[in-house]
Specification:
The chain has 257 residues and is an alpha/beta fold. It has eight helices and nine strands. The strands form two sheets. It has a five-stranded mixed β-sheet, sandwiched between helices. A four-stranded parallel β-sheet has the order 6-5-7-8, sandwiched between helices.
């Protein structure tokens, strides 16, 4: 049985419960999923890259908290910008860490050849494109398509959001020749099955894919000892430096099962 921690790296717990319910419905049998957000006041989303700087320290503190508890097999930093992923792995101990863009791109790359990523605003594209290149998928991405929506819009009117996603996903397949679509914000959750039905192409959900990828990484660690390497850039932070990264206990919504 895998135990996964989903971290919403924001100062609001507004989406912890609905994301938790969705993740538990999609998880493998036996997987337990806890969902948390950062304590105290803070940004409700990371739509601007500058807001990432605000939540960097608390997010690292939560990673340290989870690693030192020792009861999580994997954690997901739940933002499609994949913030602080390298840093988190330097603090993660035996716990695997992934994030949505990394997971979604890896999944998409083995079920299709040309990937289209659906984002809320065009201002999101530069940072996401940097990650596409860093992860080695630059020649696999057919397009970024813009929905014209803010992060907080996605779950406000689900019917409108779903239609916007369907429209852009169909255009990605027909015009950009994409054969797999990735939803490029974690708050675009809950729509992928209907969009797949409409487009006839796989649509990779931004919370389900990283959850299943985290389960996979947890299994690799447990069965084969294939955990985050400490031989290179993921070398663990030296104990004498950990005072700079205080433990932060998050707002935790534990799996009730």
């Amino acid at each position: 049985m895998a135990r996964i921690l989903w971290i919403n790296p924001v100062g609001s717990d507004a989406y912890d419960a609905p994301i938790g319910a969705e993740l538990r419905a999609e998880a493998a049998p036996g997987t337990r999923v806890d969902v948390c957000s950062l304590p105290g006041d803070g940004p409700c989303h990371l739509e601007w890259t500058a807001l990432e700087a605000v939540v960097a320290g608390p997010t690292m503190g939560v990673i340290r908290w989870a690693a030192e508890r020792g009861d999580y097999d994997a954690a997901v930093i739940g933002c499609f910008y994949d913030p602080f992923l390298r840093a988190a792995r330097q603090l993660s101990g035996q716990m695997a860490v992934t994030a949505p863009a990394e997971a979604c791109l890896h999944v998409a790359s083995v079920i299709g050849e040309r990937i289209s990523i659906l984002v809320g605003r065009k201002t999101w594209i530069p940072e996401m494109h940097e990650n596409v290149l860093k992860y080695g998928f630059g020649d696999r991405v057919a397009s970024f398509r813009v929905l014209g929506m803010n992060v907080e819009d996605f779950q406000t009117d689900p019917e409108f959001t779903q239609q916007r996603i369907i429209t852009e996903a169909e255009a990605a397949v027909e015009e950009d020749r994409a054969d797999v679509v990735v939803l490029g914000c974690t708050l675009e959750f809950g729509f992928y099955r209907e969009v797949q039905r409409k487009t006839g192409a796989p649509v990779v959900d931004p919370i389900t894919a990283p959850l299943r990828y985290a389960e996979f990484l947890a299994t690799l660690g447990a069965d084969h000892g294939w955990r985050t390497s400490r031989a290179g850039g993921y070398r663990s932070v030296a104990p004498r430096e950990l005072s700079w990264i205080p433990v932060v206990e998050p707002n935790l919504h534990a799996d009730p099962r």
